[in-house]
Every structure is written in structure tokens, then in C-alpha cells.
Amino acid sequence: MNCYDLAIVNGNIYVEGEFIRGNLYIDNGIIKNLSKDIFLSKDIYDAKGNYVLPGFIDPHVHFQLKVGNQVSADDFYNGSIVAAYGGITTFIDFLDPVKNIEELEKAFVDRKRKAKVSVVDYGFHSTIANFQDNEELFIEEIKKRGICSIKFFTTYSSSNRKTGLRTISNLLKISKRMKVILISHSENEELIREGKFPVRSHEENRPTLCETTEVLTLAEMTKNMDGYMYIVHLSSGESLSRIMDLYKSLINKNLFIESCPQYFYLSKDNYLLKDGFLYTLTPPLRSLEEIDELRKNIDDVSVIGTDHCPFKSNEKAKETLDLIPMGIGGIEYSFNLLYTMFGDKIIDKFTKNPAKIHGLYPKKGTLLPGSDADVVIFDPLDRHKIKYSHSNCDYNLYEGLDVKGKVITTISRGRFIIKDGKLVGNEKGNYVARELKL
């Protein structure tokens, strides 16, 4: 009889959209069996009737990101621990922007060297900036490195990062054939007002119209060219409603929508606070009406990422927006926050959906036998108040919020990282090569 490495018993196991009471068996870092029977195992963990979920995937983080003279507060080591406390067993960060193929190898090697200290698994998106090279050859090169996604910006000309519509068009035309997905930071640059403006004007300077006009342009291009497009950090209920009105047939086939916890919980009213600078990010926080619209249409959001990129309070405590490094944190409580608001319907947006969209499924995002043993034990009945964060950042924008449910234990490839609320694992995660299979 087989002796498994680990048995997770008495669990409410989430398998492909349904909960099954039973036991999950792991061997050599792989899920081997789901059964109501008891089998011999070297180690046994009692889930005590709690949810047994696939490890969460955050496809949008910025660890150790240099912005001007500042670097985001969480490096890959601490950031991965913060992620694990939130149940995240795989994250996808970004290579530094490149303008040609020659710069790609350095960007990849540098980022991978920094990321090797992560305690959970990780991957990368490539990033282009004012790209001036052959698109097909670039795609061939990123795929050799296990990357199947290309991030671009429709703004930031001032730092030479903007990608023009011609390049976007060229990439969209070949994206399906070459099995890559484009990832867009979508703001209409001509509608952005930049300069020495006070924090309270942040949302006015980058209004909803700025986002909506750009995502609709990209959606139309995606439809016309039958390509693959992933819109990151959608901030506006209006943007989402317009997309669904005009391009519903594309959703989760060609066009995929990501939003983030901050756009469901925090509003532009925070910019009026004395410490409003702490809430600055792009796209900015929106009105209460926009938040309500976004909440109503949660079913149309494919994925929840975090855009985790906090900076220390002294770095953000500036009087004008041009001096503030943009970005906030949220990776530790992202699932907790969205589960509190939406319940079980949010699970696939942290697991199966990002795994499929970003070329990780079925290795990640599911508890089916043969997948990596990335597992989260989650108590859906727990009620608590957010008190602190394990982030290196010296503040937590969600502190004091009452939330439902709690991540108890996080397992990465059969290894306990967080066990009953305590950090116990310090082994290193793996770089995960991705292959698009949409």
C-alpha cells in the first residue's frame, strides 16, 4: 500500500466549483488522491471541516520595484511571506520595461536573481516601453524563458514607457497564433493632467473617462484583430459597464478583466484626509457611485489581482502628486476582503481563472490529482478585525476593517509555509514557466 507524504483530512475540499467532504493526499509535492477513505500517510493535518482551497494566484505584484529614488517596501523574500499569509502560493511579477529584444535577457536575469529568495512559486510578465523591434522575434524570445504575456502602457510618455497603437495592433494580430496575451495599463494620456497638483486632485487629474475611453479602444482592437487582451487594475464601474454593454461576447474568450481590492473598498474621499497621500496609486480610487457599480458587476470581473506596490509613509508624505511614488499594498488581505464582500463566488477569481488566463492551469489553480500541491486551509466562519500586516510597509490601509473568514494554513507544493497562523517554512519557491492554452 502507498504511503503518502501528507494527508489533509476532514476537509471541505473545493474541486472545480464544488465542495466535497473528504481527504486530500499529497506525495512529492503533487496532489495524488481525493477520497473519503483513510490511507497511510507520513504526516496528517486535520482541516477540522474548514475549506480546503487551491492555493491563490496573484498575477499582479510589484516586489522590490524601483520608482525614481524609492524602492517598494516589500522585497521578494518578505513580499512572498506576506503573500503566503494571505493564502497566495504563486505570484506573477514584472520584468523591467525593455524597448528592444537585446534588453530582454538582462531584464529577465536581473529580476530572476532578485526573486530566487521567494518562499512561494513565482513567474514574470514581460514589459515593453516605446518598443522599437520585431514583435514576432520578441515573442519567440520571451516564450523561450517561460513567459507568455506582454505588459504595455498607454501612457507615461514622459518616462518613455508609452506604447503606441501601431505596436499594440501588431502584437494583437499575432497574439492568438503565437499564444501570448497582452496586458494593458489603460489610461488615455491626453486626458491626464500632470504636474505639481495637491493630493486631493488626484482622481480629477486621471478621471474615469481617462480609463473608459482607453479600454473601449483596446476592446475594439481586440475584437477586430481576434487577439488576446488582459486589462489590469480596472478601477471604474463605468468602464466595466461600458465594456459589458458593447463587448460582452469577448469576455473570458479574448478579453479578460482584472480588478483589485482597493477599488471595491477605498474611495477618492480618502484623498481629502490628512494622510491622503498614503492612498495614491494609478489608476486612482474612484467615487462611491463607481465603487457601487463595480460591486454590482463583480461577476463580470475575471480575476482579482492586487497591484501590490506599497512605499513607506515618509516616502509618500509629499505635498504634490509629482513627488509621490504611486502604489499601495494589499496582498495579505486580498482574498479576505473580497470573500467578506462576495463569499464563495470569489474563489475562482483567485484560483482557476488566473491559472487558465496566465498559462498555469492545470499545474496551478485546482486541487485535481496531478496538480501542484498548493493548498489553502480557510475558515469561512471566522470573524475578526484587521489589526496589522506582515508587510515591511509601516501602515495598513485596511487596518480596523471587520472581515469574514481567515487563512489558517498555506501549503506550497506540499510544504507548509504558514501553519495554523505561524510562519514555519523557509524553503525557496520555484520559477514557474508558463504556456498559454486559451
Automatic annotation (TrEMBL):
InterPro entries reported for this sequence: Amidohydro-rel, Metal-dep_hydrolase_composite, Metal_Hydrolase, Metallo-dep_Hydrolases_sf
Species this protein is from: Clostridium sulfidigenes
UniProt cross-references to PANTHER family, sorted A to Z: COLLAPSIN RESPONSE MEDIATOR PROTEIN, HYDRANTOINASE/DIHYDROPYRIMIDINASE FAMILY MEMBER
Pfam families (UniProt xref): Amidohydro_1 (PF01979)
Recorded family membership: Belongs to the metallo-dependent hydrolases superfamily. Hydantoinase/dihydropyrimidinase family.
Amidohydrolase-related domain mapped to chain residues: 51-415
Lineage: Bacteria, Bacillati, Bacillota, Clostridia, Eubacteriales
Protein name: Dihydropyrimidinase
SUPFAM superfamilies attached to this UniProt entry: Composite domain of metallo-dependent hydrolases (SSF51338), Metallo-dependent hydrolases (SSF51556)
GO molecular function, one term: hydrolase activity, acting on carbon-nitrogen (but not peptide) bonds, in cyclic amides
Entry cofactors: Zn(2+)
